[in-house]
Design brief:
By secondary structure, this protein is mainly beta. It has no helices and 7 strands. Strands 5-6-7 form a 3-stranded antiparallel sheet, with no helix packed on it. A two-stranded antiparallel sheet has the order 1-2. About 0% of the residues lie in helices and about 45% in strands. It has strands at about 5-10, 40-45, 50-55, 60-70, 75-90, 90-105, 110-120. The radius of gyration is 17 Å and the shape is globular.
Length: about 130
């Protein structure tokens, strides 16, 4: 959704960071939790284009793809800032901020940047503590 001009009107974070970054394509915190009848992922199309969301499942993964009847004037990217791990007592946490960046398709210039998510979640895997320099 963050790679489209569609406006997200409802999105719920995962409650935990359940796996490390090995093989991760999008930054931590860019996913969404959906529980039928309680927690939704909703979006609004305020453009003059028609969009279609295609979803499918293979043996291991849920896949999704947006298509549109025409290309938007901009491309959209996700920028992560302020990423860090920190510890409170014996529990590790992870935090970051995610921005949606719009880049003009013709000029290649950044035309918009907006904060879409500030994430902070407990980590459910082993985190190696940084080694202090001597």
């Amino acid at each position: 959704m963050l790679h489209t001009p569609l406006e997200v009107t409802e999105r719920h974070h995962h409650g935990y960071d359940v796996f490390p970054d090995s093989g991760r394509v999008l930054p931590f915190g860019s996913g969404a939790t959906v529980f039928y009848n309680y927690v939704d992922l909703r979006f609004r199309n305020q453009t003059d284009s028609s969009f279609r969301l295609n979803l499918w499942v293979d043996d291991q993964d849920l896949h999704g793809q947006f298509t549109a009847d025409r290309l938007p004037d901009a491309t959209f990217h996700v920028r992560e800032e302020g990423h860090s791990f920190f510890k409170v007592g014996d529990q590790w946490f992870r935090q970051n901020r995610l921005y949606q960046v719009a880049v003009d398709r013709v000029s290649g210039l950044e035309i918009a940047c907006r904060l879409v998510s500030a994430n902070r979640s407990p980590v459910m895997y082993e985190v190696r503590e940084p080694v202090a320099a001597a």
